[in-house]
Each structure stands twice: as structure tokens, then as C-alpha cells.
């Protein structure tokens, strides 16, 4: 069975999220847009991968994760970090290689280590490490959350890790951000079967959601995540989502029709239309906050890495 990409499933008349959640959604959105703007202005080096359209996933998971949990992220991890540690200044300084950088500027956009948060640009690298970390958390009430994309299921390390996670019964939450395309290859052209079927091969429970509504997602996942903690068992949660921006800072191989379809599922446009006054106020606040952060960080001297 081919893993078909599901249609939009959330009601367009859903109530607005809590103001705290909307602030965080908008913080991540404007952070990512600012990165693209800085690249266009020649103020950033290398590359970056934004999570435009997928911001609601880490925001929805935020209260389900606790202080002692570990979070492993991937190349598209700015939203994961900001939902875990609301520090746009530190993250932007890291990406720009400026004073105050989280990792002295040596990690950049993709490789961040900060207070039980770790990200990597190497596909499939984080899952085996996350399993080992989860093994140390057995019977502590803490868990390890690891974000991967649908394209990462082409890596053999994923299956070695899932095998050990099930054998060792570790508290591991695998969050799959399934946006239907692996850089430039549609999932249907590179994945046989389904994510659910692959999890089932190891006897690992799987839950799939096509919702983009934060409260709805939390209601679906609260008991499942609690079970990961209390019973020390792995779980695969698959989000059917849409990437509305390019793969990295400018490369998008999708057709105009495919890009328009993704944009039609954007929470930003939907919320702006549903409650324009409150949304507009918070949108301005978060945009201005990120603009101030960018101005502040840009004026700082370069970060200096000191060998420990």
C-alpha cells in the first residue's frame, strides 16, 4: 500500500488557540521569515531549513514535554528549539555566528546542543542516540522525544534504532513530520508501505493525525504520551503536515499547484481570517520582537569559540 498524503482534516471554523500558543506560533513564523530575509541580504552564510507551515507541531507538543525530557531535532529544527527554549536571541546569534551564540557559533542552523536539546543535519543520526538516551531514562518518568521527517525512513539506522527501542522498552516518542516530500522527492516515489506498517513491524504503537488544531492534537496525544512515560514504551506519532516554504533557503522543486495546495493548509492564513483583530495585534508584536532581535544580534561582534 502506498502511503498517500491525506487531505486537510481540521475544521476551518475551529476556535482560536490560547494567546500563549498563538504568540509562540507567530514567534516561530517570524523567526523563520527573518532568516530568509537575512539570507537574501547576504547577512548569513551556509544554508538553513525553515519549518514554515509546520510550526504548530512543536507548539502542540510543548506542554506534553517536561523539563527532564530530552528533545532531539533535525535540520528543520528552529521551531522545535523555540518551542522548547524560547530564546530567539541565542538561536539567531548561533546561526549568525555572533556573540551570545548557544554553541559559540560552531553549530549554526542545524547542529545545536543546549539544555537537553540536540539537533543534527544528518538524516537518521539522532534516532540511535535518542534510543540510548531514553534507555538511561527508564523508570524515571522522563522521556526522549525525537523529530524526524518522512524522508528519514529511508535510513537504515532508523530501523536498527526502532528494533532496540522495542526490545529494551525505552520511553521514546518518535514524532514524524510527514510533509509528503523528501527534499525534492515525493514520499510516494521513495517509500513503500506506510509509517504505520513499519512501526507495526517492530510492535511499536503508532498514532496518525491530520489535525492542525493545537488543542485537538493535545487531546489526542496526552494519554498516549503519558503512557510512554509511565510504562517506558516507544510510540510513533505521525503528523500529516505541509511545508509551505522551500526545502532550504531557496530550492523548491514542487509545481505551482503543489505549492498552492500546501499554502491552502497554512494555519497563519486561516487564523488571520478567523479572528483578525487579536491575530493582527499579536502578529505585529511578534514580528517586531524578532526584528529587534535581528537588529541586536547583527550589531554584536563575532562569536569566539574557546576550546574547553
From TrEMBL:
It comes from Planobispora takensis. Pfam families: E1_dh (PF00676). This is Dehydrogenase. CDD domains: TPP_E1_PDC_ADC_BCADC (cd02000). Signal peptide: none annotated. InterPro entries: DH_E1, PDH_E1_Alpha_Subunit, THDP-binding. It comes from the Bacteria. Keywords: Oxidoreductase, Thiamine pyrophosphate. Residues 27-271 form the Dehydrogenase E1 component domain. Its cofactor is thiamine diphosphate. GO terms for molecular function: magnesium ion binding; oxidoreductase activity, acting on the aldehyde or oxo group of donors, disulfide as acceptor. Gene3D superfamilies: 3.40.50.970.
Amino acid at each position: 500500500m502506498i502511503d498517500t498524503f491525506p487531505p486537510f482534516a481540521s475544521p476551518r471554523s475551529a476556535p482560536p488557540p490560547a494567546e500563549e500558543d498563538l504568540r509562540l506560533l507567530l514567534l516561530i513564523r517570524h523567526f523563520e521569515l527573518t532568516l530568509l530575509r537575512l539570507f537574501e541580504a547576504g547577512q548569513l552564510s551556509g544554508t538553513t531549513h525553515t519549518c514554515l507551515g509546520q510550526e504548530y507541531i512543536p507548539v502542540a507538543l510543548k506542554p506534553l514535554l517536561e523539563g527532564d525530557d530530552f528533545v532531539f531535532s533535525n535540520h528543520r529544527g528552529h521551531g522545535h528549539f523555540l518551542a522548547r527554549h524560547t530564546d530567539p536571541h541565542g538561536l539567531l546569534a548561533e546561526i549568525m555566528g555572533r556573540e551570545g551564540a548557544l554553541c559559540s557559533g560552531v553549530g549554526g542552523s542545524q547542529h545545536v546542543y543546549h539544555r537537553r536539546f540536540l539537533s543534527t543535519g544528518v538524516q537518521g543520526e539522532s534516532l540511535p542516540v535518542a534510543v540510548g538516551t531514553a534507555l538511561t531514562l527508564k523508570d524515571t518518568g522522563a522521556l526522549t522525544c525525537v523529530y524526524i521527517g518522512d524522508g528519514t525512513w529511508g535510513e537504515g539506522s532508523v530501523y536498527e534504532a526502532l528494533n532496540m527501542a522495542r526490545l529494551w522498552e525505552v520511553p521514546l516518542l518518535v514524532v514524524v513530520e510527514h510533509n509528503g516530500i523528501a527534499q525534492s522527492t515525493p514520499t510516494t516515489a521513495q517509500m513503500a508501505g506506510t509509517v504505520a506498517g513499519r512501526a507495526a513491524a517492530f510492535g511499536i504503537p503508532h498514532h496518525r493525525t491530520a489535525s492542525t488544531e493545537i488543542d485537538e492534537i493535545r487531546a489526542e496525544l496526552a494519554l498516549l504520551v503519558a503512557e510512554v512515560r509511565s510504562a517506558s514504551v516507544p510510540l510513533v506519532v505521525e503528523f500529516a503536515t505541509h511545508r509551505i516554504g522551500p526545502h532550504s533557503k531557496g530550492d523548491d522543486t514542487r509545481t505551482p499547484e503543489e505549492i498552492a495546495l500546501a499554502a491552502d493548509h497554512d494555519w497563519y492564513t486561516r487564523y488571520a481570517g478567523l479572528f483578525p483583530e487579536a491575530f493582527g495585534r499579536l502578529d505585529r508584536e511578534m514580528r517586531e520582537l524578532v526584528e529587534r532581535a535581528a537588529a541586536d544580534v547583527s550589531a554584536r561582534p563575532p562569536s569566539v569559540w574557546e576550546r574547553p
